[in-house]
Automatic annotation (TrEMBL):
GO terms for cellular component: membrane. The keyword Nucleus does not apply. It comes from Adlercreutzia equolifaciens subsp. celatus DSM 18785. Residues 64-174 form the Ferric oxidoreductase domain. Pfam families: Ferric_reduct (PF01794). This is Ferric oxidoreductase domain-containing protein. It comes from the Bacteria. The chain crosses the membrane at residues 58-79, 95-114, 126-145, 166-186, 192-210. It is found in: Membrane. Keywords: Membrane, Transmembrane, Transmembrane helix. It is a multi-pass membrane protein. The keyword Cell cycle does not apply.
Amino acid sequence: MRFVIALVVSFALVWLCAKPLKKYPAPFYLGAVALLGLYFWGSAAGVRNEAWSYFQPLMQRCALAFLLFSIVMFVGVLGEKNPLRTHLMPIRRQLSILACIFAVGHIAFYAASYVPRLTSAFTGNLAFSLGLAALITALMAVLWVTSFSVVKHAMKAASWKRVQRLAYPFYVLTYVHLALLLMPSALAGNDVAVLSITVYSIVMGAYVVLRLRKALADRRTEATAATPDLDLEAVAA
């Protein structure tokens, strides 16, 4: 159910609210921060009701953030003339910032659970998962900061593009991290965990296939564009 809710919210952002999100992103950022504040307040106050049971996982389990990150990543692997790419590319940066804001709820929840226990001897899957989480958080912070226009314009274009390539390892590592967290529950037969890891795996698998396909297409395009130059050089020789 939380995935369906995240899907509805994401659809509203990328389709119904695309133009205002592009033109006036600040109210959307403030709204995301307000929802994050509501999550923190509700968690501290111990809120328990039906509405909360739907809202809490969107923040705590990173469902909404992962879906928004997925949209941002998938836009990059669509063809140049794809209508979805044309529609979503102008708000890709804004969606990335919103995803980072929503991801803070997940990071804060697990940091509060495990940071006080850092003096303990973490081993195996937990140690690897926590180390991975720290790396992912660092990558997200860099991508988050450089997504803001003021930072982007202060950087050289080539440097900014190099930094933004960190999105590829960030996205893949995020999937690995979520899979590691869900796997024990999934193996124990938890239906929600099984469904979640299945959905995440399908999304990631589709992205990898499309990313590889686009890389091959780009390589063929570059090779085709370079052929005339090679022919001219041969004639001149």
